[in-house]
Amino acid sequence: MAYRIRRAGRADASFLVEMVCEAANWHPDRMRAKADLLADPRVMRYARGWKRPADDGVIAVDDVGDSIGACWYRVLPRNEPGYGFVASGVPELTLGVRPVWRAQGVGRALLEAACDLARDAGHQRISLSVERANFAERLYRSEGFVVVASGDDADTMVRTLRG
Ligand SMILES: CC(C)(COP(=O)(O)OP(=O)(O)OC[C@H]1O[C@@H](n2cnc3c(N)ncnc32)[C@H](O)[C@@H]1OP(=O)(O)O)[C@@H](O)C(=O)NCCC(=O)NCCS
Q1: Ligand 1: does its nearest atom lie under 6 Å from the Cβ of 86?
Q2: Reported pTM
Q3: What's the CA gap between 38 and 56, in Å, rounded?
């Protein structure tokens, strides 16, 4: 199936909300209700108020222009950090692909494109949080992310983007 990747814009805000819900609900046996996720500021801080000046990301779209996946980053403040916070100014990354489009290379292509954007924006590092049981951790490792901190179930990972 054909897809292309484009820069995310302000009009993609609602799709990013959808994708952060996919990321939060990655485990099929531990699905939270959409309303519960929408009311959870720790989840919604990755998407609400998009697109602030320091936000950027990419969207994968199918051949009729429908959005099928997204990877984006935000610089979250120390007093309202994301799960992958490592330091002020280091952007935190989120990745999600619609279920029917998974395992076809879309996630890796989005991840690479979003890291390129962050590097081009001058960021030296980018971080994320991933539950250790999620195969996505292997994807991140293969793209140069390393574990810098570990909780009970999740790891914080960082990729160096430049020098
Ligand atoms: C994680 C996610 C974004 C990956 O996107 P994707 O388009 O499915 O991934 P890709 O097709 O690019 O595959 C990337 C790698 O993961 C592997 N992979 C894909 N699906 C897999 C699965 N179900 N189990 C194990 N490995 C898998 C692929 O083999 C590929 O590795 P390879 O290039 O060495 O072959 C997607 O599965 C998703 O949206 N999951 C739910 C949300 C989520 O977990 N987000 C991350 C939260 S930190």
Answers
A1: no
A2: 0.97
A3: 21
